[in-house]
Structure formats: C-alpha cells, structure tokens
Amino acid sequence: MNQELIQRAxxxxxxxxxxxxxxxxxxxxxxxxxxxxxxxxTLDGHGIKMLMQAGIQTAIITGRSSPVVERxxxxxxxxxxxQGREDKFVALQELLSSLSDAPTLEQVAYLGDDLPxxxxxxxxxxxMAVASADSFVRQHAHxxxxxxxxxxxxxxxxxxxxxxxxxxxxxxEHYL
Length: 176
Hints:
Order of helices and strands: HEEEHEHEHEHEHEHH
Oligomer: single chain
Structural class: alpha/beta
C-alpha cells in the first residue's frame, strides 16, 4: 500500500462495511422455505473486533435487510447497523449526525464492492473496494484489497488501518 493510503488510514475513527460481496462472498442462498442464509468469514469478524478493541467505531450499511445480518452484527458487537439502504452515503450521513463526538468524513473508512457503495467510497477519508468488486468501483476507490469479499478482505482492511495507526502489533501480541 502506498504512503497516501497509509496517511488516510492513520486518521480513521470509524470503519463502515457493506455486507453482500464484502463480509460475504456476494452469493444469495435461499432455502426451500424461502429463508436465506449467508456465510461469513471468522477472520473478518475478528478483524472487526480488533478495530473495536483499538477504539475505532464500526458500522454496517447494507442494501438488503436480513435477520442473519442483524445477528452477525450483534455477535460482533457492532452497534450501528443500517439495513435496506440503497443510498449508502445518506445512511452514512445519518449515522454521523447521530453520533456524539462524530468523526468527520475524513476520519471514516468504508469498504464496499458495488455501485451503491461508490458515493460513500468516494467521499470518505479511506474508501476501499474488495478485490472482487465491480471494476468501476475498484477504479474509483482509494485502494483495493488483495482478498475477495467474504474471503478475508475485511480482515485485510482492518489490519491495514490498525497497522497504519501503529496498533496492530500490540493487539496481536496480546495473544502470545
């Protein structure tokens, strides 16, 4: 990652994640009864927990609504969840206006994969796309992960922010 991305990551106080294609592989799985399920990567989940341990707030903004996402957010301790929101930037603005001591847009990181994520990706301090993202989104993001959505991209994003802020080593050494 280049120096500009590191400087952007050093300022981050809030990390926002899309779900389908970012925290999952982007596939929709429906059971015969009509219910759906999603698969999440545990490495990504722990990366999000590490961000929170380091004092960085986290949020999910997703275009679809799913009880599975609500359960995953609760399990990870993510307090800010916006579902069924096609206009992700408007949802992000609502989130920021609801927070006391809210970060500025420059202090927000956003990880997405598709066109509805692009307005947020372009306006935040660190807007990144997963490797499996739409090519137009990858082209207009500040950076692109090497991992695909649902396959460690969120962990890579989290660790990048933590490394840039000099917090990753201490979090990892905690487990020694």
